[in-house]
Amino acid sequence: MSTVTSARRLLARSFSRAASATPGLDARLLVEGAVGQENPDPDMQLPADALARLRDFATRRLAGEPVWRILGEREFWGLRFRLSPATLEPRPDSETIVEVTLAALAGRREEALSLLDLGTGTGCLLIALLSELPRATGLGIDLSAEARDMAAGNAELNGVGDRAAFRQGSWTEGLAGRFDVIVSNPPYIPSGEIAGLSVEVREHDPLLALDGGADGLGPYRIFARTLPALMAPSGIVVFEIGAGQGPDVVALMQAGGLEFRGSRNDLGGHERALIFALT
């Protein structure tokens, strides 16, 4: 593995034998991460320190650790987000939440909106929205202090730190005021299904961000009881949901006094985002 090309080929073969879904991509990203640059010269000789990093990366990947966890950051909405063991890894499907929210705001995108992100994790939803809403300010809440700190760092990294605040807390406890936009990607996997998840998710995403209780709907029940009192009169709520949860989440929110305004599918064609407003 002395050159970029030979390293990529060897890693891709190893990852393919280990049944990676994207062995070539994994190899390219890890080589780039080891040498510290994108698209390095294919004939570049890898220095000893890069080779050492690459061997460590390869060992971790073959053990099931996701590539982005190994690299310590991932892109979301064209922005960089650093990861920690306390944060869910942002997925492209969650960009659907950002898309739906911006579409729902339509002509309000230049207003001084107030945003709330419940279970903020890396801060990806809130920070992506602030990057598109130049006069908005936002508050992110997470039960994990480590996640809260990571989100604050990501806000600074992406140039919106002066318009974002982050607190440690349990969902809506202790919150007051009225928000124009409330978003959340809460844990929604039923507790009994956690053990059957892939190693990449089960062993590397935090349980706190996965486990939604016995039926996966625990957080939504809290939201149905508490969010109407936190919404501005023309406010909107956008949630991410798991497969097949749409009807149950809609029923919960309607019982709590919210009006269902529609849904949007993710990149795979699955219902992913639900939008609500006050009745």
Automatic annotation (TrEMBL):
Q: What is this protein called?
A: Release factor glutamine methyltransferase
Question: Which top EC class is given?
Answer: transferase
| SUPFAM superfamilies cross-referenced by the UniProt entry | S-adenosyl-L-methionine-dependent methyltransferases (SSF53335)
Q: Which PANTHER family match?
A: HEMK METHYLTRANSFERASE, MTRF1L RELEASE FACTOR GLUTAMINE METHYLTRANSFERASE
A GO BP annotation:
methylation
Q: What does this protein do?
A: Methylates the class 1 translation termination release factors RF1/PrfA and RF2/PrfB on the glutamine residue of the universally conserved GGQ motif.
Q: Where is the Methyltransferase small domain?
A: 112-188
Tell me which UniProt keywords the record has, alphabetically.
Methyltransferase, S-adenosyl-L-methionine, Transferase
Domain of life here? Bacteria
Q: Which family does it belong to?
A: Belongs to the protein N5-glutamine methyltransferase family. PrmC subfamily.
> Example GO molecular function term?
peptide chain release factor N(5)-glutamine methyltransferase activity
EC number(s) reported in the record: 2.1.1.297
- CDD domains in alphabetical order: AdoMet_MTases
Which residues of the sequence carry a binding annotation for substrate? N185, P186, P187, Y188
